[in-house]
Structure formats: C-alpha cells, structure tokens
Design goal:
Radius of gyration: 20 Å
Order of helices and strands: HHEEEHEHHHHHHHHHH
Number of domains: 3
CATH class of the largest domain: Mainly Alpha
Length: about 260
C-alpha cells in the first residue's frame, strides 16, 4: 500500500474515533489529555523520558496506557499523544516512538504512517480545516495563515502546514517557502506579534510540575487517603511525586483524612 493509502487508513480511524467519543468532525480539542483519559479511558503519564523518546504506549488484556516525554514542546506532546492513541485505536500493539521520526516522511513503517495520519486528523480534522478556511474567506497560503490555523487547533506550525497541504492538495513547490520559514523559527515571533497566546491545557500545565500522574491514579490515592489507608507521605513515595504536589492536588479536590476520636 502507498504512503497515501496508509495515511487514509489513519484518517478513517481518527474520524471513527472522534465520532465514537462524541467529538464531532470539526472542532479543535480543548484538552487532549482529558479526551484520552476521560473519554477513551487510557491513563496518561507525563514525565522526563530518556533523550530521543517522544512517547510510548502499551497494554494488556484490553487495558492501555500512554507515557509522554514532558520535556518536549507542548505542541509536539499533543501530537504524540494523538499518535499513541492512534496505535491503540488501530490495534497496533505496544510501541516506542522517537522524536527523530519526521512527520510526513515516506521512509517510515506503515503503522507509523497510519498513526501519524490518525493524529493529524484527530487533532485537526480536514472538515474542520475546511470550515476554518471558509470563515477566513479562503486566505492565501502564508506563514500567518499557518500560524493562525496552528493556534486554532492547538498544533505545531509544521502540523498545521501539512493539514493545509492536505486540504488544498498543494504541491511541494507551493508550500515549501512557508515550510522553510517555519524551519527558521519565524513562526514563533509572528505568533507573538499577532498576540496568539499559548493554549493552556493539561499538558501545558504539566510541563512545570513533572511528573504528571494519570487522573485515575490520583483518584485512587485520594480514596486511600480518605479511608486512612495511606498517608500523603506514603502516596508521594509510591507515585515518586513531591509531597507538596500531592498535598496541593488533595487540597484542590477537597480530600480530607478520616475523622479520629479526638475530632469529636
């Protein structure tokens, strides 16, 4: 099968997943971690993985998990998370994904091309890109168009460019100058000039407080704490997370230890 054929398999799987999860086929994802954990029931751990590894996923007996490298750019983490979900949804089995796997490269294993196609369509579906273009009155291909589209769907400028290429069926020669501008980093300064602030979601917040444990894990910790089975110190040690982080999370959730006789 050709690369385009493999990508189409990924696109189709992403559309099925978005429909099944109730996400529709146009809207950007406000928080992909919440989508993956709350809707797809896949716990997500964000931490500092060994250099070169973008993420990994695996599972056993229908129970899956994802680990992300929280030291990488947040836009890259979002795409990687969607890529790992693609592996899961398409039944590819466990995998480790490396940061030097180039998006859009034709020299990749079929399942990686499929997972990239899934991630692209899951994060920025072509129907949504088309609607956005119509609302923008069909803007010319420019770095500003790419930057604004990236901001709308919370993806990288390079990913946004590839989605425009897919929507418009542009030749390499037409979008290459914009791609070169992105490679030079010009999109960062342009985004600042346009006043496009970084999207604040779970992954953006997690970068400042690694590791980020799955919500289900913290919920189990809260339950154990409120039943008097574990202390904050013990939970922090088990999760290998700073005590202050656990206390802040418990406080935010209103978690309280069980009452003792001295409380009466």
């Amino acid at each position: 099968m050709t690369v385009v054929g493999e990508q189409e398999l990924g696109y189709a799987a992403a559309r099925r997943a978005r429909t099944t999860l109730g996400l529709g086929l146009e809207a950007p994802l406000a928080d992909i971690v919440e989508v993956v954990e709350d809707l797809a029931s896949v716990p997500v751990t964000v931490l500092g993985l060994p250099q070169g590894i973008a993420g990994l996923q695996g599972g056993k007996q229908g129970r899956h998990f994802v680990f992300l490298n929280g030291t990488q750019a947040v836009s890259r983490q979002r795409f990687t998370l969607a890529h790992e979900l693609g592996h899961i949804e398409m039944g590819h089995g466990g995998s480790v994904d490396y940061e030097d796997n180039v998006l859009g490269s034709s020299r990749r294993a079929p399942r990686e091309v499929q997972a990239d196609g899934f991630a692209a369509e899951f994060m920025a579906p072509l129907d949504g890109v088309g609607t956005w273009l119509n609302l923008m009155h069909g803007p010319d291909l420019s770095l500003e168009t790419v930057v604004r589209l990236a901001h709308h769907f919370h993806v990288s400028a390079k990913a946004a460019l590839y989605r425009l290429q897919a929507a418009w069926r542009l030749s390499k020669g037409k979008y290459q100058p914009v791609e070169e501008a992105i490679d030079r980093g010009e999109h960062h300064e342009l985004a600042k000039r346009l006043g496009l602030e970084s999207h604040a979601d779970t992954l953006a917040r997690a970068c400042a407080h690694l590791p980020r444990m799955p919500r289900a894990t913290l919920t189990h910790g809260v339950n154990a704490y409120e039943r008097g089975l574990l202390t904050v110190e013990q939970i922090a040690a088990l999760l290998q997370v700073d005590e202050a982080r656990i206390r802040a999370e418990f406080e935010a959730r209103g978690a309280m230890p069980p009452a003792t006789e001295s409380d009466y």
